[in-house]
Each structure stands twice: as C-alpha cells, then as structure tokens.
Amino acid sequence: MKAAVVRSFARPLALEDLPIPQPGSGQVLVRVETCGLCHTDIHAARGEWPVKPSPPFIPGHEGVGIVERLGAGEMHGLEPGMRVALPWLGYACGVCRYCNTGRETLCPHQLNMGYGINGSFAEYALGYARHVVRVPDGISAADASPLTCAGVTTYKAVKVSGATSSSVVAVFGAGGLGHLAIQYARITGASVIAVDVNPARLETALAVGAEHAVNPLAEDPVAAIQRLGGADAAISTAVSPAAFEQAFGSLARGGKLVCVGLPAENSMRLPIFETVLGGLEVAGSIVGTRHDLEEVFELHRRGLTHVEYAERRLDDVNASIDEVLDGSAPAPRLVFRMSAVEATTTHAHEDVVPA
C-alpha cells in the first residue's frame, strides 16, 4: 500500500510502499477513501508539541473508508462493506473513571490516530472496532473526513462554551476548524463574530453564517469586539498564542474562553485582575467522543452544516502542507483522496470565491 511516512522530524514526509497491515483482536482493516489534512498532522510530522510521536509513523486522523477485514473478538456491529471514520481518539481503555463518566477523551491510556498509532495518510489503516464511527448513508467520504476531527472538535467546543440563542460567540481562526465552529454556534442561535488574518477565510466565514468579520491586520480585534458589546464566549482555533490572548481580551463580563488550537509555542499570558473582577473563565476542549461524532454526522446528514474543502492526492502531501502553512490553500480544509483519480476539486459554498 502507498503511505506517507514520517521518518524524521527534520525531513519531509516520505511516500513509501508498505505491507497492508493485518487486524488484531478488536481491530478492523479499513480501505481508506479520503483523509483530511489537519494542522495537528503538521505539528506531529515536525515534532512540535511537548509530547512527541515516535518516528517512523503514518499521520492522519480524519480517515474515512470501507471496512475490508475483521479481526478476532467483539466487532460492535461492524461488517465488511460498511463506511467508517477513523478519528483522533483511536483507542481508550473503557474502564477508567473518565471513560466511565462519558469523558473518554481524557482517558490517560488513550492512543491517538496518526500520533501514537499509525493513521490514515495511507491506502489502508487499522482501527479499533469500539472507536471507529459509522458514517451514515448520504454523507460522502470527502465530507466526512473534515467532520471526523475539525467537525467533532469544534462541535464539542461549542458545547463547552455554553452558547445559546442569546449569546455572542467570537471564533478566532476561521479555517478548517473555525468555519465549522461558526456553523455549530449558529445552530444554537448565537450571533457569531469571525476573526482571521486571511481575507478569503473571512469571506467563507460570512458565507457560512458569521454576522461580523474582523481582520487583526486591519484593526484591533479586542477593540472591535468590545464595541459590539463583547463576546459571551470566544473559541480559539488559532495556532498563535497572541490570538488566544486577544480572544480572552474580547470577552464580555462573565464570558468564557474555550481553548481549542494547540500552538507550537505552549504558553499565553492572562491578567489575573481582569479575570477575577470580570468573572471570566478559561476552559480547554479536546476533540469529542465517538457519540459527539455521531451527532456531528447526523447534523450534516440533515443538511445543517456545510464543509469547505479542496481535494488533493497523497502524492502531493508535502506541497499540501506548504499550502496550509503559507495560507495559499484554496479552501479551509484539504482532503487527500486515496485514488489514482486526479484530485483537484474544490468544494466551496456557492457564494465563496476561493483564494
């Protein structure tokens, strides 16, 4: 099988021909159809986080494909031919106090796709039957891929934010995660402010439901949002600590900052005085459970969300990473199609003009 492999944090990913893995107990073999490119994959490939993966490994945690083979043991209703998603939470123990209270994403024994176990930048991947999630009929593989991480991550973040129909929600970073966060916040009825330095991403944000767009290169986002009355919740999907600090500064009294993005620079400065007097909260939100992902798929099946993505070939993995890093990607999300078919399609909202 073809796979994109991280051999060294200092080198580009290598395209290699590897043996097809065989499913062990409790596992399924999935023929991967599509896999999204998440910024986390880039951090993983470059070893930028405090806890680093161990090369060699295959990145990718937005894999979607067809179950081809079953291992031994309980398969939780899975059968060959079913389409499933292979999410970031590749395995959780199922018996710790976090797993037993619906907080499996906090399991200290978890294994993550494309980080601790090989992911879906490959034509085949293994998944644990208890943690893969069935993709409903009517949702394409390419749509399902971004929903498998960007979707479920921001859906959970909106839940954590406590957004309601009377809320003002500021989303810092309107890219792959942010354009979906905007839609989930709008589903609650909240008014949404999008913040991004990329004009094309702001156009997308307005097209998918944001009422206001703020470019920090043109104006101070804290002042701009405070003029609108401040944000009841600010969700930061950005990869810069400065954006997190700005998101905090944009809060109205009693507001909550929800931290989602994971910058390589692992710190931010927050004022104690204003936090105490303003009754402000700071919360971390890490992806979502498999049940959250089922809800994300159901919302999409019902036509309540729209995914903006452009397709790429796995052969172009390193050029695609460059597109994400320099902001030249034509859509908020890039999706690899594991096929010999030329993958250059852009799927955008009809009112959006790609960059």
Describe it for me?
The two termini are 34 Å apart. Helix 2 (141-161) packs across helix 3 and helix 2 packs across helix 8 (290-301). It is globular and about 60 Å long. The chain contains 9 helices and 18 strands. The strands form 4 sheets. Strands 3, 4, 5, 8, 9, 16, 17 and 18 form an 8-stranded mixed β-sheet that branches. A 6-stranded parallel β-sheet has the order 12-11-10-13-14-15, sandwiched between helices. With 355 residues, it is α/β, with parallel strands linked by helices.
Quick take:
The chain is α/β, with parallel strands linked by helices.
Based on helices, strands and strand pairing, what is the structural class? alpha/beta
Shape: globular
Note the main sheet: 8 strands, mixed
Our count of helices gives: 9
- Residue runs with pLDDT of under 50 for 5 or more positions: 340-346, 348-355
Q: Secondary-structure element order, as H and E?
A: EEEHEEEEEEHEHEHEHEHEHEHEHEE
Q: How many β-strand stretches?
A: 18
Q: Give the oligomer, counting copies of the same chain as homo and different chains as hetero.
A: single chain
Q: How confident is the prediction overall: mean pLDDT?
A: 94
**Strand fraction:** 15-25%
Radius of gyration: 20 Å
Helix content: 25-40%
Q: How widely separated are the two ends?
A: 34 Å
Helices, strands, pairings?
Layout: E1 2-5, E2 14-17, E3 27-37, H1 39-46, E4 63-70, E5 83-86, E6 89-91, E7 111-112, E8 124-128, E9 133-134, H2 141-161, E10 168-172, H3 178-187, E11 191-195, H4 199-207, E12 212-214, H5 221-227, E13 231-236, H6 241-249, E14 251-259, H7 272-278, E15 281-284, H8 290-301, E16 309-313, H9 317-326, E17 333-337, E18 346-347
